[in-house]
Design brief:
188 residues; alpha/beta; Leucine-rich repeat, LRR (right-handed beta-alpha superhelix); 11% helix
C-alpha cells in the first residue's frame, strides 16, 4: 500500500491538543490532510491551553520556546498528534530532541538554524514516519547523517551549506536510497 493510499484512509476526526495554560509553545498551523511540502499551511491558534483541531486537518506546531517544562508537554501528546514540527531559528539542542521521541507519527521536522549536532540525530530514530527533514545551518556533519538510515520513509533532507566531498554525496545516496539530499557545499 502506498503512503498516500494509507493517508487517505487515516484522515483524522476532530481532536484536541492540550498545551500549557501558563506559557505558549508557539503557533499552531493547519492544512488539509494529504497535502505535502511547504505550501498550504494557514495560521490557526496560539499553542496554549486547549486547542480543538477540526477533522481532516494536519497540524504544524511552530515552536517559539525551548523551555524544558514547555517542551515536556510534547511527551503527553498521542504518537500521531502532530504531522509537522518547526523548531527552526531557536536555540534548540540535542538534549531537547528527546522530547520528540514519542511523536512517531511526525512526517516533517524543521531543525534549520538550531544547535543540533551529530549526536542529537540518534533521538530521531523512533520517528519512522518522518518523510522530510531540514537540517541546514546546524552543527550536523555528513557522518552524523548515518543516523537517518533508521528512517525508512525519509524522502527529503535539506543539509543547507554542509561541506561534503563528492564521495560523501555518493555514500549518502547509498545510505538513504530514494531520498533527495538537497544542499551541501561540495569540497575537494
Amino acid at each position: 500500500m502506498r503512503d498516500d493510499q494509507r493517508d487517505a484512509r487515516e484522515v483524522p476526526e476532530e481532536r484536541t491538543l492540550a498545551f500549557s495554560d501558563e506559557q505558549s509553545l508557539g503557533s499552531v498551523y493547519l492544512r488539509p490532510w494529504g497535502e505535502t511540502g511547504d505550501d498550504g499551511w494557514r495560521s490557526f491558534e496560539e499553542a496554549q491551553s486547549v486547542v480543538t483541531i477540526p477533522a481532516g486537518q494536519q497540524i504544524l506546531l511552530e515552536f517559539a520556546t525551548t523551555d524544558p517544562l514547555a517542551l515536556a508537554t510534547l511527551a503527553e501528546f498521542a504518537p500521531d498528534a502532530l504531522q509537522s514540527l518547526d523548531h527552526s531559528m531557536t536555540p534548540f539542542t540535542d538534549d531537547q530532541l528527546i522530547y520528540l521521541r514519542g511523536l512517531i507519527g511526525l512526517r516533517e521536522l524543521d531543525l534549520t538554524d538550531t544547535r543540533i549536532t551529530d549526536a542529537g540525530l540518534r533521538h530521531l530514530r523512533p520517528l519512522v514516519q518522518l518523510r522530510r527533514l531540514l537540517l541546514g545551518e546546524t552543527n550536523v556533519t555528513a557522518l552524523g547523517l548515518a543516523h537517518l538510515s533508521a528512517l525508512p520513509r525519509l524522502r527529503f533532507v535539506d543539509i543547507g551549506n554542509m561541506p561534503i566531498a563528492d564521495t560523501t554525496k555518493e555514500w549518502l545516496d547509498e545510505l538513504l536510497p530514494g531520498c533527495i539530499i538537497e544542499g551541501g557545499l561540495v569540497v575537494k
